Amino acid sequence: MNATEQDLRLEMLNSLLTTPHRKLEQVAEIHKLIVELDPIFYGHLAVWYQRHGDVRDHKEVFVAHLLTSDLTKHRDAGFVMLQEFPPYQVARVVDFMKQQCHKLPRSARTAVQRYLKARESNAALFDRAALRGRKAMKHLYASLHIKPSERANAILFRDQPPTGSLADVLKQLAKTTSAAEQARLIVEFKLPYTIAVGAIKQLTPTVLVALIDSMTPQETINNLKSLKARGAMDCPEVKALIDSKLDEASKGARVAAFKAQIAADAADLDEDTVARLEKVTNEQVKQRGVITRPTALLVDKSGSMQNAIAVGKQLAALISGITQAELFVYAFDNIPYPVTAQGKELTDWERAFEYIKAGGGTSIGCALEVMRKKKQVVDQIAIVTDEGENAAPYFAEVYKTYCRELAIMPNVLIVRVGTHYNWLESQLKQQQAPVETFTFAGDYYSLPNLVPLLTRPSRLDLLMEILDMPLPVRMDK
User: Fold this and answer.
1) What is the predicted pLDDT for the residue at 108?
2) Taking residues 57-72, what's their average pLDDT?
3) Mean pLDDT computed over 365-390
4) Could you say which of 74, 126, 395, 408 would form a disulfide bridge with 66 (CB–CB 3.0 to 4.6 Å)?
């Protein structure tokens, strides 16, 4: 792999990892570019992201492009990967193929047909899919003109669910006024919270216990605000059950790392619950990988950079929680401010940054100059900034001296915030320094995407890991 190919692929990867959550039009443009420039790399990247990525939009668009690819092995991989999605994502993939790719190959239609028939052949699987994704399932059958089985037709289109089906149980739940009977139906049939809560007029503590007991840890986090609004936090028995779910989420394999933190910020929760959510975030981040290289985190605190300070706290907690090497943290305006925490948790870094306030000019290089003088040697530098540098020492100049005197050339990762420029990036590229960018657009879900960029021994290692990822093979042709 020559240097030009490596840089191109890294640029693709960086663009992919930094696209804001739920900005599907931006996602589409990036994917289209990568497919055209390097379709082979794109296929391996799709599989790698399915396992390691966080943004559902990307996963859907990957599968859509694989299913509409000219390469047979891509279409086969997309066929296999589609089978793992819940119905609402399958429906989004189909719509994306029609609206953005402007085609729906026969093999893609066959993949959806196989998806629906596999669920029809397993009543329990079908009922669960129809309960959670009723609208999406109907859309798939109708838009692709796929004939449903008699049972599927009765549940989805005639609204005459057979006795014993989950749709029939939901009707029973809506009719009964007995809290004990409601709780029995929820527990026995594991009815999801978002569905059951719409069928019950009044939620008693007995029903709340039954609902929470049937939730996954992630569902509990997602619905904390709703649970609080319904008085769940005021009942000791219900609160204890919520606490146990949050403790379980710390170790769970299918929990979004920063979703817990967002829930804590949004739901106005008590200190104990907030602490549990922070633990979930910290533990989930630790599962993403280990940083083995000495790292510096430089956080812009110049005028109007309050959002950089907020992101800096999050990144300090993220990095310190997974590093096995030295970490140097500085905030800077015209002068650098060393920031040290007494622990590795987000709360520790909140306290460490407590008196760091936005104000002053911007010398991004001042922190690196102090590191040079103190001989603080690092392999990588993450800078949270808008790249608006207006005072000496300038980073690019200090960087040259730092590299020469300490005999090292650290990778530079610019985490862009606010209304950003490309000043620093262009200055570093002019001197052929290894620089990457990550645009933070207010979406904390995206921050864990930085982990792969910080945990691999080198940028080439990350690319080779992606290229070594085998594509799934369709076995049922």
Assistant:
1) 96
2) 93
3) 95
4) 74
Where b means 16+ CB within 10 Å and e means fewer, 143-152 reads eeeeebeebb
Positive or negative CA dihedral for 416, 417, 421, 423?
Answer: negative
Cα 84 to Cα 63, 79, 114, 119, 473: the distances in Å are 11, 10, 12, 12, 14
Cα–Cα distance measured from residue 431 to residue 180, given in angstroms and rounded to the nearest whole number: 72
Residue 280 CB contacts under 8 Å (≥ 6 apart), including other chains? 221, 246, 249, 250, 255, 260
Res. 43: pLDDT tops 80: yes
Report field, pTM of the whole predicted structure over 0.70:
yes
Could you give the 3-state DSSP secondary structure of residue 55?
coil
Give the residues across from 195 on adjacent strands.
Answer: none
> Residue 418: what residue type?
G
Please compute, for residue 60, the number of CA atoms within 13 A of its CA located in the half-sphere on the CB side: 24
Question: Per residue in 386-422, is it b (16+ CB within 10 Å) or e — as a string?
Answer: bbbbebebbbbebbeebeeeeeeebbbbbbbbbebee
- pLDDT average, residue stretch 309-326: 90
Q: Are strands 411-416 and 327-332 parallel, antiparallel or unpaired?
A: unpaired
Residue located via tokens 């140097």: 328
pLDDT band at 17 (very low <50, low <70, confident <90, very high): low
Higher pLDDT residue, 446 or 271? Answer: 271
- Cα–Cα distance for residue pair 282/448, rounded to 1 Å: 11
Does pLDDT of 10 surpass 80?
Answer: no
Phi, psi (rounded to 5 degrees) for 301: -115, 20
Of the CA atoms within 13 Å of residue 247, those in its CB half-sphere come to: 7
Tell me, rounded to whole angstroms, the distance of Cα 123 from its chain centroid.
32
Per-residue CA distances from 128 to 167, 205, 252 (Å): 9, 25, 22
In degrees and rounded to multiples of 5, residue 213 shows phi and psi of -60, -30
CA distance 270 to 277: 11
Rg of the chain over Cα atoms, rounded to whole angstroms, equals 25
Give bridge partners of residue 337 from the DSSP assignment: 331
So what's the pLDDT on residue 23? 63
Tokens representing 228 are: 């609080």
Q: Which of 160, 151, 42, 139 is nearest to 92 (CA)?
A: 139
In this structure, are strands 327-332 and 336-338 parallel, antiparallel, or unpaired?
antiparallel
Residue 295: which pLDDT band, with cuts at 50, 70 and 90? very high
- In the chain, the N- to C-terminal Cα span, in Å, equals 34
Q: Is 105 left (phi over 0), alpha (psi -120 to 50) or beta?
A: beta
Q: Coil, helix or strand for 112?
A: helix
What is the Cα–Cα distance from 66 to 49, expressed in whole angstroms? 13
